[in-house]
Amino acid sequence: MLFKRRKPAGIVERLRIGLWPRRGFGRSARYVVLRLLRLKSSPHRIALGAAAGVFAIFTPFLGLQLLMAGIASWVLRGSIIASVLASFAGNPITYPLIWFSTFNLGSTLIGADTSLRIMDLQSRAEELWAGLGVMSADRVGAAMEGLWPLFKPMVVGSLPLGGLAAFATYMVVKKMIASSNERKRLKPRLRTA
Q: How far apart, in whole angstroms, are the C-alpha atoms of residue 105 and residue 169?
């Protein structure tokens, strides 16, 4: 193969690159912004899609966030591609901050006790994983029932925080796309003058 590594990356190296890219998250963020600027749609539709993607990353349903972003964007008639691109704002750096803030806000809003023990959560997560491994509905149901004290405040807290982040994303992206489109529209006039 033409561009293959001489020495294959080990498991530790692949894990490190998966958590922290070689060139950092700044390059990935620039890529997402450039892709958003190149989308062929109205600034309103692109901004709606981006807002749907950002709202989805605030939910605690980690495996379903891209699907949720796409469905929300489709229902709102936003850009589905923009929603998928914006959902990449969720990364190993932002997720702990998001989860911590949604859990604490949700606990405050519902008045729940936040003294969940890590050992209890670990054993409940292991039960869920084991139930998924054998595809036992009873074991999965029991594990989800045990994890509900964690998920309930996160779901409640994700609604206002996700809504606020989605609103801010909508405003910023719409202004960014509109100004980029205006620059593109004026650029040919500047060349001919």
A: 20
Q: What is the pLDDT of residues 47-98, one digit of tens each?
A: 999 999 999 999 988 878 889 998 999 999 988 888 888 888 887 778 888 8
pTM: 0.72
Length of the chain measured in residues: 193
For residue 92, the Cα-to-chain-centroid distance in whole angstroms is 10
The count of structural domains within the chain is 1
Has residue 58 been placed in a domain? yes
Q: How far apart are CA 177 and CA 174, in angstroms?
A: 5
Domain that includes residue 130, residue range: 13-182
Instruction: Please check whether residue 188 lies inside any domain of the structure.
Output: no
